[in-house]
Every structure is written in C-alpha cells, then in structure tokens.
Design a protein that fits this description.
- The structure is a single chain.
- The chain is an alpha+beta fold.
- It has 2 domains: about 1-65, no CATH class; about 85-180, RRM (RNA recognition motif) domain (Alpha-Beta Plaits), CATH 3.30.70.330.
- It has helices at about 1-10, 10-25, 30-45, 50-65, 115-130, 155-160, 180; strands spanning about 100-105, 140, 145-150, 165, 170, 175.
- The strands form 2 sheets. Strands 2-3-1-6 form a 4-stranded antiparallel sheet, covered by helices on one side.
- The longest helix is centred in the N-terminal third of the chain and has 16 residues, at about 10-25.
Length: about 190
C-alpha cells in the first residue's frame, strides 16, 4: 500500500518536531514582510478547501517523501487559462503522450455540480483500490469532466463507481469517446 511506504519514510515524531519549529518561527519571523507576501500569494492562488492539502504536500516535498510530478505543460490549443464557457470548447479526450498506459474516462459531473478533482480522486481510490497517485489529471468542464487513469485499472474503476452518488447526484463514469466517435458521419 503506498501510504505504508510513505509512512515508513516519514517519522511521526519528526513531523511533530518540524511543525513545532514552524510554529515557533512564525512567532518571530526573520522577514515578516516577505512572509506576508508569500501568504497573500498562497491565499490568492490556492483555493480554501485545498490549503491544508497544499501545506501537507509542501511539508512532504521538503522532507523528500512525496515524489514531485513534472509540471503540466499547457496544451497547444489552449494558450490561456481562461475557463471554458461552452460545451463546444471540449478538448478531445486523449492519452498522455509520455505514457501509453493511460486512458481518459468520462465523468458525468462538472463545475456546475460542485465537483472537486481531489474529492473525485479520493472516492475513486477508496472504492476501486487504485492508488491515489496513479490517478491522473482531472479536466473539469462546466457539465462534465474527464479523468486520466491507468488503462488496466479503467474497467475496475468503472465497475467500482457504478451506482455511486456524489453531492446528492448519481455519478456516472464510463470510457471517454473520441470526437470522431461522438459526431455523426458526414459532418
């Protein structure tokens, strides 16, 4: 289990001592102005519901426990981070070019349904037994989403999530269709 491996690399007493040191340093910071600037940027960029996770991830990375994933490359068809406003702007479900064993799954919920990528990944991991870090990027659109998963785990995820409800609404996960499969012939 991945959590057991991480736990064996990271000592609870070390964590406690680290956090106590952090709290002590916060009482008398070396550069209060710089600390406030970073705090302001952190609050502006990281959504409230993810701040504690972001802090935990920073601690793990500083301790060398969490593996750093390569930064996401912006897709060539979307140079800006402007939110998608129409369903027609849907990107084609695709596999990660660096990994041939990843497939996109369609998720029947999106921003409108208050779907949070981390929460979706957590539910999928708990119900299917697929490691949380094996689940890839969640592409969140207004009415639906896509999640990248290992190809061999896709059938298990689909069957495990069958009948699952999230935010009081049934959640359907199924293989994503390529654009050519979803448009009628002759168009």
């Amino acid at each position: 289990m991945p959590d057991d491996i991480a736990a064996s690399k990271f000592n609870e007493k070390t964590l406690e001592a680290f956090l106590e040191g952090l709290l002590e340093e916060l009482k008398n910071p070396q550069d209060a102005k710089l600390l406030e600037e970073v705090r302001r940027a952190f609050r502006k960029k990281v959504p409230f519901h993810l701040r504690s996770y972001a802090s935990a991830l920073m601690i793990l990375r500083a301790a060398g426990v969490s593996r750093a994933k390569p930064p996401r490359r912006p897709s060539p068809e979307a140079p800006s981070r402007a939110p998608a406003t129409s369903e027609k702007a849907r990107p084609e479900p695709r596999q990660d070019p660096t990994s041939k064993d990843v497939i996109s799954l369609f998720v029947s919920m999106g921003k409108r349904h208050h779907l949070r990528p981390q929460e979706l990944k957590q539910h999928i991991s708990e119900r299917s037994g697929v490691a949380l870090d094996a689940l890839g990027r969640v592409h969140l659109l207004e009415n639906y989403s896509f999640i990248e998963v290992p190809t061999e785990a896709a059938p298990r995820i689909i069957s495990a999530m069958e009948g699952f409800e999230m935010n009081g609404r049934p959640l359907e996960i199924k293989p994503a269709k390529k654009r050519s499969e979803s448009t009628p012939e002759g168009q």
